[in-house]
Amino acid sequence: MPSESTVGAKRRRGLREGAWGWLFAGPMVLVLGLFLVLPIAMALWVSLLHWDGQSNPFSGHADFVGLDNYRRLFAEDGLDRTLFAVSMRNTLYYVLLTVPLQTVLALFLAVLVNQRMLRGRGVLRTVFYFPSITSSIAISTVFLFLFQGSGAVNRMLGWVGVKGPNWFADPRGVVWLVLGRFGVDQPAPTAGGPLGLSWSEWFAGPSVAMCTLILMAVWTTSGTFMLIFLAALQDIPRELEEAAALDGVNRRQLLCNVTLPALRPVLFLVLTLGLISTWQVFDQVYVMGKGAPGNTTLTPAYLSYSAGFDNADYGQGAAIAFVLLGLILLLTTLQRWVLRERGGRPRRGPRSLKGARRAAR
Amino acid sequence: MATSRTLAAAAVCAAVALGAVTGCSSSGGFGDSTARQDSGGNQSLTLLIATSGEAETAAVKAATAAWAGKTGNTVTVQIAGDINQQLGQAFAGGNPPDLFYVNSDQFANYAKGGSLYAYGDRIPDAADFSAQLRQAFSYDGKLTCLPKDSSTLGLAVNTAMWQQAGLTEADYPTTWQQLADDAGKLTRNGVTGLVTAPDYQRLGALMKEAGGWVTNPEQTAMTADSPANKQALEYVQTMLKAGSAKYVSEVDAGWGGEALGKGRAAMTIEGNWLKGAMAKDYPDVRYKVLPLPAGPAGQGTLAFSNCWGIAAKSRHQAAGVDLVKHLTSADQQLEFAKAFGVMPSRISALATYAEKYPESKAWVDGITHSQPPVTIPGFTKVLTQFNTDLQSLRTGDPATVLAALQRNGEQAIKNAE
Lengths: 361, 417
Fold this sequence. Notes:
heterodimer; A: 361 residues; mainly alpha; B: 417 residues; alpha/beta; seven-stranded mixed beta sheet; five-stranded mixed beta sheet; 17 helices; 47% helix; 15% strand; globular
């Protein structure tokens, strides 16, 4: 049994270590607190106000309205709710298409340029990474020109006898565009769906303009994610692949049973980053039409901006931002759960990978 | 236990920091009290403008420099990239520029928030400004800021295409029927008769001509679902369906002037900013500006303007008013007209302007029967949504579009009160 003094000394040492720890972490805690936590708390307060942005929201004059801003987004029939619902629908399609496409493309590119037999790997890596380092504003502007009614894309489609659509003018969703070919027209909007948006609107799919935005997002982000995948791929020990080769697996089995499981943590990272950035899409929308055509490229992030700066309703803008934050947290948790390690003792995966690496040493 | 102590410490830290930050701001930038006023010479004013280009920037700089030289003050002209956003941030931060352009769609928001210094009663000859624009820039019955310039819409026609289609000056449309007929005759070989932007800022003129408008003249109630508005939209829809009218995006143009300049439109509805743009971008295209044809309720057009806002928090309000007087004087307005093609907002200067620039006569004449912009707080999103609905007018139902506008507008008016 330790004596009183040893316990005291231990405790004092613990305290001293704690103090040193705080001292060293202090600057970062201060910076994060001042520029991240504090603004978030202030924004949360603003989301409970009716604030026009022209007075001090932290004084007694602030017009506190409780959850009214949130109620207008979810429960009150009106323009606010309709716009919010439309923006949610648009972004849902954007996320559902962009995240899988960019992840698969990035993985494919990474596997491609990771091959030791490939010539000019360095050049290819640079080429694939190039769109990622270009400003999204510049790319959006170029895309606007490419996808004009008489732009380069439609000219090229013309060579093969396809009459391209007027990309940024048609507000119809692709689902109704395709069904329209078969004589099924979009039914007139009726009440019914969630958030006051009719089911035919929810299931309209992304508009052609939104599809070009998706295309652009996939093209610009896959380079970055390729780099992340590539780093992880190079971290997979060669011995593992050799062992698999000795077992006589083919390329597909190698990818599915050795490479992908080893990439699971990185896959989680890429999917999370993709999910967050796609839900927050703003700059492309701002440049390429601010929601046009027909609100089909409206996103919650842009709606939040427009509520604040165009309509002087900053409380509403902050409320939209917090709904978006909650949604992203929720989806990330969900994704974590889906990608969790299953079973008591994983047969493959990073842990067994580490074991393999140790064994190889 | 250690964690709960850490949490408590963190909470205390956060509370202290929050108090410090907000406390600082309320004593400094955010302060709600009226600003202390500077007097005498040698004041330093800032002016934030959203410029249309080099010419406007240079003209405003020259005009403010002349005033500064005369009074001994200094004026710094700042160019805004996105003036709504920059002003919004400046008001929220409590340190706005002394003078700035105010968009008519933001005017009511700023006035309602108490950010504008209402200086109308300090302008002795305010009656010289057009009544419609004075009404647009009044809040609570008080003239708040002076209109910077004025613009109206006219019908611009490509004279070469006019002749090629076998039409003469006698065929210049004066009624809706004639406009539709002419547009039909002009539509051929990749040219569309009438091309216009899918905005209420263009099509609204037809609503006015039919005897309707979005709100009543006092801007206290919505009148969007009136039969007159429906008639106007149905007229446009008929032309869109016939193919004799198209929206600018359908002919790959950003606005009416581009469609006219690129030879894709024989006619377009645009304001007097068209003149400068055509001279700069399409100097070889010959065109003529006509008054918009009369509708069932006679002639009508829309008036647009920005105003010279003075910040309620400015410490140089007296000097600011003096600068605005200088900038809105008849001579200075004509100077601006020469430099970058805007129309004066003073009626006395307008007469001189019409004499000097006879080609702009249709726009000048429009002032008398023009509809000023809607200035209701929180109305931007309602009109943005109306514009969005107008984009699909060809396949849509005018009554539905107007009913949505009526409903959204009523809600905004209710929230504004």
